[in-house]
């Protein structure tokens, strides 16, 4: 007998695989955008602080257009627990969006000055990673 029930490919619901890259490459990516005239200096500072921190071996990153994507696993799917960090230069604001396959989504908009503290909060709550903000 032929099976006629509709089967769901749950992997497809999770989105496509996003391949991560070393933090040094992500730093280079934003430096190149700044050299091209894009106003991403605050986002670069955030990425540089991650790259210089011990947490750089615990979290993985990549980019989607100009947004920063962070996960606690390599080569994550876009629908998994991924933190999207968006910098809105015209408003001098960051947007943090955490989307989870389970549907428990969180987001926060903050100023440039609050970005590291907000990142710290998301990393601790969503990934269980303790990020110590570097002293100035």
What would you call the shape? globular
Radius of gyration: 17 Å
Distance between the termini: 69 Å
Strand proportion = 25-35%
Strand order of the largest sheet: 2-3-5-6-7
Estimate the mean pLDDT confidence.
Answer: 87
Unreliable sequence segments:
none
Major pleated sheet: 5 strands, antiparallel
Number of strands: 7
Fraction in helix: 25-40%
What oligomeric state is this?
single chain
Order of helices and strands: HEHHEEEEEEH
The class by helix and strand makeup works out as: alpha+beta
Number of helical stretches of at least 4 residues: 4
Description:
With 136 residues, the protein is an alpha+beta fold. It contains four helices and seven strands, in the order H-E-H-H-E-E-E-E-E-E-H. The chain has a five-stranded antiparallel sheet with strand order 2-3-5-6-7, with helices on one face. Strands 1-4 form a two-stranded antiparallel sheet. Strand 5 and strand 6 (93-99) form a beta hairpin. Helix 2 (23-35) runs antiparallel to helix 3 (41-51). The longest helix has 13 residues, at 23-35. The radius of gyration is 17 Å and the shape is globular. The chain starts with 9 loop residues before the first helix and ends in a 9-residue tail after the last helix. The relative contact order is 0.16. The mean pLDDT is 87.
């Amino acid at each position: 007998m032929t099976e006629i029930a509709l089967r769901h490919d749950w992997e497809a619901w999770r989105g496509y695989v996003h391949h991560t890259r070393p933090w040094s490459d992500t730093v280079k990516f934003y430096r190149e955008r700044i050299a091209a005239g894009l106003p991403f200096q605050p986002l670069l500072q955030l990425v540089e602080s991650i790259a210089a921190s011990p947490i750089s071996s615990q979290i993985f990153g990549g980019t989607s257009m100009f947004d920063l994507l962070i996960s606690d696993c390599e080569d994550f799917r876009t629908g998994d627990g991924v933190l999207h960090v968006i910098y809105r230069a015209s408003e001098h604001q960051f947007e943090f969006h955490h989307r989870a396959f389970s549907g428990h989504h969180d987001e926060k908009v903050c100023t440039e000055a609050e970005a590291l503290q907000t990142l710290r909060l998301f990393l601790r709550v969503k990934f269980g990673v303790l990020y110590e903000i570097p002293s100035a």
